[in-house]
């Protein structure tokens, strides 16, 4: 895996965690992150990364439609189902704890990631619905063509076409909104970045300029939310995130020469990003209650009191649950003589 991608995965997960911490702070009337309004942009970055990674992981490998989907199920669903089951147990006994903001919870949709107006047991699971939608489109073009240029072009055109239809055809039907969602633009951005990454070398200086422009645009979005509210998220947030993403890719060779502790910590955060994404909702609520009872609810103490245990929990879950689970499934696949491709 590219080091730049791991750092970006860590950044994406961290932004989502901070977004949810900011929400908790409002609930408990402490406002250490009341200035942060773009934490949800971590989801946009995750989608761009996914668009890129599926191309990168399969580019020089022969893989069928069925095998691709099987490997995606194997990689994503076991850990998600584990946390969904944990949430279900809590939900049975303390339903208000699982969805404290109210609304109906759909158990069936939670497990099978069916698009719904209801809530999932693990509310973050809605993003995985879009991930699998993208996987289905990507795998369809694996089946349709072995030519990589045709494959990537087909994926990009399909994703952009569906999203563009959604911009002009407004519907309140959840399935129609899902199929034609503007989120699909961001997966397309990742695929486009991979094509550029393989064909052309972006200089480190150009990459830094792209990062600076992307950060500046996100900063503007953060403090002028209303001015850009009419724009699709793929433009006001996705495009700046894509600039940051592509700029980071150009730093890959430089990153490989670094050995700092901070870099290693960032890479570990990247590897544990999926675990952190799933586990942090289980940490924030009890941590907030404990901090409040201990009267440690001053803004920045409260923020760190939620952030630190969430990050540590993500690393622990990665090291002792996710990683062993992935290795076990790989070994089982190897013994079954299924080619152990990592995607």
Descriptive labels:
mainly alpha, globular
Describe the structure.
The longest helix has 37 residues, at 299-335. This protein starts with a helix and ends in an 8-residue tail after the last helix. It is globular and about 60 Å long. It is built from 15 helices and no strands. The protein has one domain (3-335). Helix 1 packs antiparallel against helix 2 (41-58) and helix 10 runs antiparallel to helix 11. With 343 residues, the chain is mostly helical.
Give the topology, please.
Elements: H1 3-27, H2 41-58, H3 65-93, H4 95-98, H5 107-112, H6 126-144, H7 148-168, H8 174-179, H9 184-199, H10 204-223, H11 233-249, H12 252-256, H13 261-271, H14 273-293, H15 299-335
Q: Mean of residue pLDDT?
A: 92
The tally of domains stands at 1
Look at the helices and sheets and give the structural class: mainly alpha
- What level of helicity do the residues show? over 70%
What letter string, H or E per element, gives the SSE order? HHHHHHHHHHHHHHH
Number of strands: 0
Poorly predicted spans: none
Report strand %.
under 5%
Shape: globular
What radius of gyration results from the CA coordinates? 20 Å
Distance between the termini: 10 Å
Number of separate helices: 15
Largest sheet: none
Task: Give a concise summary.
The chain is mainly α and 343 residues long.
